[in-house]
Fold this protein.
Amino acid sequence: MESFAKKSTWREMCPVVLACLVLLLVALATVQPLKAQVLYGSLVGNVKDPSQASVPGATVTITNQQTNASRETITSDEGLYSFPTVQTGTYTLKVTLPGFKEFKQTDVLVTLNNVTRIDITLQVGEVAESVTVSALTATLQTDRAEVKTELPSKVLEDLPVPVGRNYQALFKVVPGFNLPENAHSIPSNPSRALQFNANGASKSANNIRVDGVTGTNVWLPHMTSYIPALEAIEGVNIVTNSFDAEQGLAGGAAVNVQIKSGTNKLHGSAFEYHTDNALKAKNFFLPTNQLNPKLVYNQFGGTLGGPIIKDKLFYFASYEGTTDHEFASRIVTVPTLLARKGDFSESNRLIYDPRTGDTAGNNRTAFANNLIPADRIDPIAAKIVALIPAPNIPLPPGTFTNNYFAGRTFTFDRHTLDSKVNWNATEKFSMNGRFSVLRYTMLNPEVFGDLGGPPISSFGGNSGKGWGQTYSTTIGGNYIFTPRFIMDANFGWTKMNTNVEQCCLDKKIGSDVLGIPGTNGPRRFEGGWPRFAIDSYANLGVNDDFMPYYRRDPQWQYTANANWTRGAHNIRFGGDFSYQQLNHTQPEFPGASHGAQGGFNFGGGPTTVRGGPSGNLFNSFATFLLGQPTTLGRILQVPDVYTTRTWADSVYIRDQWQVNRKLTLSYGVRWEYFPLPTRQDRGMERYDLVNNKMLVCGVGAVPKDCGTKISRTQFAPRIGVAYRATEDFVIRAGYGITNDPYNLARPLRTNHPILLALTVSAPNSFQPAGTLKEGIPPIPTPSLGNGIIDIPGTVGVNTLTDEFKRGYIQSWNFTLQKKIGWGFIGQAGYVATRQIRQLGFLDLNTGKPGGGRASEPFNQKFGRTARTAIIGPISNNHYDSLQTSLERRFA
């Protein structure tokens, strides 16, 4: 990597610059808790006298009932008061003015990303007299047009949540959400974050912030990297339509999660949740003689929060442990005892000798008595067969599948810690910081033990041993220059380290034990078993073509905002800058049939005859015994670690205008820029569609962006209106545009020549692609030269065109909300989204998204047979719904 002194851009220095900016803001006393306005609330209202005339010059004071922190302002000429950027909590509101009784309202709840309105009528009298009222009832959404839902801590802790106690499971009660579902393996998603769609938008168009900072799983951007313990969460704010201009990178749902803070009182909790096999029904598909397998699942922990210095310094900490230990089982298919010897008399199909007939599969002769002679059985195949366990499930005559039951111990242990410190340094300056950490281990043995095979537990996903850590840190603060001008800023860092590897990596079983040329390699991740995929049977050796993997994915985010109140206008502006990295060792490429160890597929074609019946599981196993794979291949990962670097920059301005006592108008615009991702030391790669060449960006004569045009004019306007028809009835409407935040680092992570994927296929379905004895051909490493290199027609690529057009999402709503008595609030609205130029893969072989391999003239020109996929707009999507809700806030 080139030094800064040599040839660096400001982007390459981004982490250093961001850290310096944070330190500078702290020194200038302009920082606070890692939260932008999306993690603060606002308190606004009108002050009137008994004749309903505006009352200017009244002193309005709010005091946090948990920490005694207070703020003060004066009502404007129109009788308006406004407290923007308010730390969430329960407040006492006090209004005083000579000639009027003191007004006091307690239990005023301020929640994250929300505007609480308290309109006040002062009574004529002496200042010594007072009028006190209490709140703690559900309030109308009076000043913002977005569609949102709040899940406070009481809801999170009291509503039933499935095993795992993930707050995202409660998204099923939010209008517009599909049912959130588990996704990906434990090593890829140790937090067990859920994936979901909101209002028809892509699952990658959601943005989840914890204490104001996004912690996306960089490799899986439709997931979040960290899920706090349920007991640690103060509240969750979910916005799904007509976003405020401050909210970016979310066209589906913007989810803001707030971790609890300490108060002047000592608070704590402890919990333990347990389930075991005695509480669960037996799996219907288990063998009849198999008892309900052992299961012991525990989730336990506690919280503690309180003062370090009363009214000044507070702490909160939460620990949660999860232990999932179970006897897992799997039923798979293994070859019968006769078939292992080459005796296929059990089959109702003939086994044909591939040495007979012609290369098209005509005129073949079957083996006598359906028996492969011992001298024709490949010695490498015989070594492998000797390690395959025998069938252990009795089956009816003529049934040969699902004949082996395997049971092994599966374990998943996870520990999370959330800690937070709040500091009210002065009346004007406050800060907080959060540190969260997750550590996990997983053991998910292979079905066949040292022979490999599928994982014993489908819940774990990947087979083998997994381990890793996720760290998440935020620091920020705010400074009140005057009651009408406030700044807040925050800095966040998240790092997700995760690893998983199958057994036997320290042995080169393919090359050194079995003697198959071209398998394995000199590096440890290239060790272990090759993959043997025999049609209709469980895989032998390494089960997945993407194993093992080691990932180090850090990200940084810096946000700064200013709030300026001028008369009836509340103007907010700021910027959001994020930087993400992928640092992976993982030989994986879409469309490749095998991974770093190499592998072989065995179909039934070589032991069938043209015009005869199609092959069955006996034919494919016979092909294996003969050592004649129908497909073979391997991936060569050229660097030990490949990398991506991604940026997302945005700025915004928004005015919230109190037009009069009944009407609030909010309007603003957001500008966003998503530069093309790069590698650590150069640009990415792009396939030249015209000249059939691969361009290595930033090498030789090729520019770092490969000449790809990326728009710098992605403006996203937002507008909303809220009309308070009566004190009990609000009408709202809003419209906004959000740029699709999809991270191109995911589809462009691996490409030629970072990974060289070799796949050798048979010339037709009746012929083998090679032999086990000959192995896999060597893969030459191409020279990068001047950055314009040849590309074999058998190599698949993912590419952009010379101009990338990012899509966008429109959202709009019309909503009615009313208090209907007994503390209930009812809401009904029309909600719509329209996703323009939705991104996806366009397969050049068909010209259709996700198409097959049918050739087109372009492919015929270059003789390309491998998948060539363009990442670009593939479709538009429209969603309409009528959404209703009923809410009551209980103390």
The radius of gyration is 32 Å.
